[in-house]
Amino acid sequence: xxxxxxxxxxxxxxxxxxxxxxxxxxxxxxxxxxxxxxxxxxxxxxxxxxxxxxxxxxxxxxxxxxxxxxxxxxxxxxxxxxxxxxxxxxxxxxxxxxxxxxxxxxxxxxxxxxxxxxxxxxxxxxxxxxxxxxxxxxxxxxxxxxxxxxxxxxxxxxxxxxxxxxxxxxxxxxxxxxxxxxxxxxxxxxxxxxxxxxxxxxxxxxxxxxxxxxxxxxxxxxxxxxxxxxxxxxxxxxxxxxxxxxxxxxxxxxxxxxxxxxxxxxxxxxxxxxxxxxxxxxxxxxxxxxxxxxxxxxxxxxxxxxxxxxxxxxxxxxxxxxxxxxxxxxxxxxxxxxxxxxxxxxxxxxxxxxxxxxxxx
Length: 361
Ligand code: SAM
Ligand code: SF4
Description:
Layout: E1 35-36, E2 42-43, E3 45-49, H1 78-91, E4 96-100, H2 110-118, E5 125-130, H3 135-145, E6 149-153, H4 159-166, H5 171-183, E7 189-194, H6 204-214, E8 217-221, H7 240-247, E9 253-255, E10 266-270, E11 276-280, E12 293-296, E13 301-303, E14 312-313, H8 314-319, H9 324-336, H10 356-359
Bound molecules: S-adenosylmethionine and iron/sulfur cluster.
Iron/sulfur cluster (SF4) binds next to loops.
């Protein structure tokens, strides 16, 4: 992330303090093309949710019965979506695109969307986060369409446990998807794992052994209060420190040298390298002060933060005939009001109404 000095208050390093819901009232937004906020952060990484639907039902994300899916006419069409992405890349300085969901592989026309993004100038870096179902037959085509990198979510290597966590018996599909993605040259290929106490917390070492053995880069993510059921409890969350302590029983970990930049993961070299493991301590080791993200939901709402309780409606502008510069201005205004931090530790923290599966993780 490139920080601009706006002469504004800066966040303390590592800080996540501050309200999530109250827009920060402050000075007028400077007349810059980029997505700057009042704390000197610049958003260059756009997370795009392609759908809120999913074919798994991970317990930390959705209830067993699923959710009321977004009506089709509320979801942006491919054309509308590509127009907004084009505004972000050509007018707002966005350099990285990550497609997510819900399950992004469920979005019809995904390959065409990727190809349209790959044709933009300057060419953005294009990645995707998926649960891996159906990836086996799609991986080569996704790479051909312009996908650069992939994260596959995998919380356990045990079939029964996989079924318990995702409420579907699909571990074999995910593993086949990983193999196909590797063969398609989608590198570095990353695995996202969420550990939960009493569920899969004992698998940290097994997951890392699996990743090291197959050349995948593992990222552990602390469980966040973003589940649709609002059932998250701090006590059930396995902290970054606990994950590192478990891994150190079997591996020598050394902090990765060099600047971490805006990357949420703290990186560690495993047994002298070159393999690395990442730990994303979103709750206990927040990185809000370096956040470079902006988010677009499948129904065209800009969110300045995963935990924001307010949104800016670009769909209504788009469908109302707004020009590109008007849309760009609304997006800049939305990001200017970004709160300093997620505020999970604040006594008045309110979990956003929109769950992770509809925001895009
Ligand atoms: N369905 C795709 C998948 O699972 O990879 C993409 C969407 S999913 C919301 C993106 C990532 O968010 C996954 O790695 C998932 O494990 C993670 N995730 C979902 N709910 C979470 C939560 N409450 N806390 C932390 N990570 C979560
Ligand atoms: Fe679906 Fe991903 Fe949520 Fe699991 S984490 S239910 S795969 S959206």
